[in-house]
Amino acid sequence: MNSNIWLLTFADSIAIATTLILAALGALFTERSGVLNLGIEGILLTGAISSFLAADASGSIWVGLIVGSLAGAIMASIHAVLSVVFRANQIVAGLALVIFGTGLANFLGKPAEGKPIVTVIKPLSFGPLSDIPLIGPVVFGQDIITYGSLLLAVVASLYLFRTRPGLELRATGDDPATVDAQGLSVAAIRLRYTIFGGLLVGLGGSWLMLAQSAAWHQAATTNGLGWIALALVVFAGWRPNRLIFGAVLFGFTLQLPFTLQAEQITIIPSAFMQMLPYLATLIALIALSRPGSRNLLGAPKALGTPFVRDER
Q1: Burial, 182: exposed, middle or buried (Cβ in 10 Å; 0-12, 13-18, 19+)?
Q2: Which of 72, 242, 247, 301 would be a feasible disulfide site paired with 17, CB 3.0-4.6 Å?
């Protein structure tokens, strides 16, 4: 068994977890407000292609990250308007966003299909710390966005459970009528956090494009990570601090088939290992579609339910 291969696998698992944490945090903030957004995959793709085009044109990764994040916020605002303002069916609106985002990314990225990325996000240098056996490459071999995403998950947990705005957000997802009775605008809160969630998802797609992908390939850039992020929120019980462990675990599962192939381990079929994250996603989506299962999992009680003031 090659220890270097396994160290690289763990390091890559944390790296892949960056997109999952950011996308799942975006979905979590959105769902905590009571809005179900199944369009995460479409937002990820839009953020990825927008960041690629912006970074390629400007030569700056920061411009790419900002543009990709804003593209995610714009996409999420479409879902927010449909779901909150027009009270459209949130499942249908989310799936429509996936179709729209995928088509838009394909259209914008067609001229750049296969074009390599010149401007990339590189890991930070920690000097001798990066050479520490076992933990060096894993802990000190990541980039600034990866460390930022881990910190953001911790801050998000404190925000949700230790601040008044966080309490208002949780209350909006659980009992919007009470929030309205307190003189707060349920619609404004849902719009704000749905758009903010899209911003985080767009950032996740931008990082994936600029740090993990060698070139733009619409079919393989996100590879279903948006759907996995939705499942991750469910398995984390809508708690940000649990997302970190879940994201690393999902990231490890995604990397494991390549490691098994490199180690020439054939006892476990690689196709079976590749299937596991998506099987877990399917189970989570089924659970989300059943109100009884939502209550057991700890989902916001008003998730996916439009709020109509006159019906209080």
Answers
A1: exposed
A2: 247
Would you call 305 helix, strand, or coil by DSSP? coil
Of the candidates 128, 119, 144, 157, the one whose C-alpha atom is nearest the C-alpha of residue 24 is: 157
Q: Six-digit token pair at 45?
A: 């793709």
pLDDT digits (tens, 9 = 90+) for 272-298: 767 777 787 787 777 766 666 666 677
Element holding 280 (H helix, E strand): helix 270-288
Count other C-beta atoms under 10 Å from residue 8's C-beta: 18
Provide the H-helix boundaries in the chain.
3-32, 40-58, 61-80, 90-109, 135-139, 144-162, 164-174, 176-181, 186-207, 225-235, 240-262, 270-288, 291-297
Read off the pLDDT of residues 73-118 as tens digits, 9 standing for 90 and up.
Answer: 999 999 999 999 999 999 999 999 999 999 999 999 988 888 888 7
Supply 170's token pair: 């949780």
Number of domains in the chain: 1
**In the chain, what's the furthest Cα-to-Cα distance?**
65
Q: Is 141 helix (H, G, I), strand (E, B) or coil?
A: coil
